[in-house]
Amino acid sequence: MTQYARPVSDKAEDGNWSSTDESGGSAVFYSAIDESSASDSDYITGDGSSGSAIQIDFELTNGLTDPSATTGHKLIFRYNTDGSSTDATLTVRLMEGATVRMSDAVDVSEVSSYTTRTYAPTNTTGSIGSYDNMFLRIIFEDGDASDNVYISQAYVEVPDASAGTDAVPVSLNTYRQMRER
């Protein structure tokens, strides 16, 4: 079965983000984007008015089983903007410590309705050493300084540990052994 790494807590935020969710008068970001079924009624907002890149990080679900494969991982996120910028980029990264394992940069210029993006690279950048050390990083940059970005869902899909997509099928191994005799 596919494993899911969803945001479970806020890790770091540069002061340019807000959330529809709060606790005790303070913004709570992860709970606005952690749902298994997308809900656009709660979301985080990145303020692009500075024209500089802004960033927010999220701790992800721990306890995933290593699939021993670099294939089959996916970044899934749902976003929207104010729709007026002609120079806006949203980048979502799967990080392991300081190492980028997956990164997807999307031109979000003139986007004016929620869009779900699934990024499924051929391979992750290297083998992930510790799934408990992964986190999600979201970066928004609006060169026009005219848009905000709205994110209502973000998570990572990890293949099942029994998938072993990098392994050679047993029947092929058997054929090779018979041929070598």
Question: What does it look like?
Answer:
This protein is mainly β and 181 residues long. The chain has one helix and 13 strands; from the N terminus they run βββββββββββββα. The strands form three sheets. Strands 1, 3, 6, 8, 11 and 13 form a six-stranded antiparallel sheet that branches. Strands 2-7-12-9-10 form a five-stranded antiparallel sheet, with no helix packed on it. Strands 4-5 form a two-stranded antiparallel ribbon. Strand 4 and strand 5 form a beta hairpin. The radius of gyration is 19 Å and the shape is globular. The two termini are 38 Å apart. 31% of the residues are buried.
Give a quick set of tags describing it.
181 residues; 1 helix; mainly beta; 6% helix; six-stranded antiparallel beta sheet; disordered C terminus; five-stranded antiparallel beta sheet
What number is the mean pLDDT?
90
Question: How many individual helices?
Answer: 1
Order of helices and strands: EEEEEEEEEEEEEH
Helix coverage percent: under 10%
Oligomer: single chain
Q: Please give the radius of gyration in angstroms.
A: 19 Å
Strand content: 35-45%
